[in-house]
Amino acid sequence: MKTRPFLRSVILLGVTVAAPGLLAEESNLKLYGFADAQFKKQWYSDNNILRRYNVAEPGGQTYLDHVNLYVDSRPNSSLRFLAEFALNRDPAQSLPAGLRLVYDSAGRSAYIPVFAPELREKDHGISIARAHADLLLADEYNVRFGKFITPAGIWNVDHGSPAILTVRQPYQTNFIPVFPESQTGLQAFGKTQIFEQDLSYSGWLSTGRGNTSAFGASDYGQVPQNWDDWAWGSHLQTDLALPGQVGARIGGTFHTGTLRQRTEWLESKLAAAPDLAELTTTRVDSSYARELCYGLDGKVQWSGFLLQMEWNHRQVRNLMADQSESNINAWYLIVAKTVPVHKNVDVTPYAMYESISWNGAVNNQFLGLDQTPAVGFHAITAGLNFGLFSNVHVKAEYSHQEPEPLNLGSGPIANNYTYADLAIDEFDAQLSVAF
After folding, report:
1. 425 Ramachandran zone, left/alpha/beta (phi>0; psi -120 to 50)
2. SS3 of 363-387
3. Which of 93, 133, 235, 245 is deepest in the core (most CB within 10 A)?
4. Share of the chain above pLDDT 90, in %
5. Contact status, residue 208 vs residue 221, Cβ threshold 8 Å
6. For residue 56, what are the contacts with CB-CB under 8 A and spacing of at least 6?
């Protein structure tokens, strides 16, 4: 795997940074993390096609969802190493390969797809969610090197189950991630004050998103073929000091990079005698596109009330087809109220609405959106979050998810679906522990 030498170098750097702290009288190495277990039950119609996409799943399920361990070392005030190890949600990645037969006499060719085991990459069930070294120069400017969580909006950063209200994250940060969940590269970040308001920023140069599909996240970044393939972006955030003990923040994010998928073919040119056939390897771009991602986020907190929202938009331009566009638009709004019950117990009822829509799916078929009988969906969620002793949370929520049907009279996904055919009702319960 091409990213492994880089990650090994980052880990080695972290061990070197942590070593002086381990020899100190008071250790600067910290280990902490979180884990959660979940129960899920869904109800839907028998002909719900979303079962093909693992969105609709039969029966009740109880499973271990997250086990994340953080290794945090600060040998001095100017250096920090942080790594997050997690159960792997993307355990394997394969490079499509194939066999191309070229018949010189007839001028014809045929492609036979195959998958070579040596082209598959495994993580053995463990992923490195982040692993980076920070050079802390001043409050206003710092440098981060390694694999980092994309500082886009609120929910992509606060992804740990003890830090979020709901059981299920918004679909725009998990199922159809508008921004890449993580990236590998270089990041500059810092904070300052302007007109007595806190302002923080981050900017990055990275290998970008590792998965061309719109669904799910990849644990791998792509391998840039040229300078144009490198991704870059920035996030700006202001924390407002408002009267009446009101806390508020407003943020904005931009990200751009390329999406390249390469296919490898074995080419066999048949001569007069079969034993004289020539075998060569050909690599071609099966997709090449540029993505532009924009986002706005905001949050207001006052006397236990929370109002939080994010709007994110992703535009994909096909560079192999006159920059024809595909667009994904997503937003959510959540309201909550925390009520103290006991000095060690509180309860937070919450409600969330989320909407995702897309268009131009056929312009970039590698996204996989053209294979779904929908042009978007919305979800309504309501639940309770019980906080116990500050590090234990018990959550229970009910949600109704309703796709916007795409009715087609012909083709591979021809259908005449209604809202009821694709709707899913879901109950989730979760126990999470921070340690």
Report:
1. beta
2. HHHHHCHHHCCEEEEEEEEEEEEEE
3. 235
4. 51
5. yes
6. 42, 44, 48, 50, 424
Q: Tell me how many domains the chain contains.
A: 1
Closest CA to 181 of 164, 203, 156, 201: 156
pLDDT tens digits, residue range 45-82? 887 777 766 677 778 888 888 899 999 999 999 999 99
Look-up of token digits 């309201």: 335
Parent domain of 269: 4-434
Q: What 8-state DSSP symbol labels residue 208?
A: -
Which of 298, 306, 291, 145 lies closest to 236 in space, CA to CA? 298
In the predicted structure, residue 32 carries a pLDDT above the cut 50: yes
End-to-end Cα spacing for the chain: 32
pLDDT band, very low/low/confident/very high, at 110 (cuts 50, 70, 90): very low
Q: What share of the chain is helix, strand, coil (3-state, %, to 5)?
A: 10, 60, 30
CATH code of the domain in which 306 resides: 2.40.160.10
Span 140-163, mean pLDDT?
92
Ranking 10-14, 32-36, 229-233, 269-273 by mean pLDDT, the lowest is 10-14
Q: What is the token pair recorded at 198?
A: 């806190």
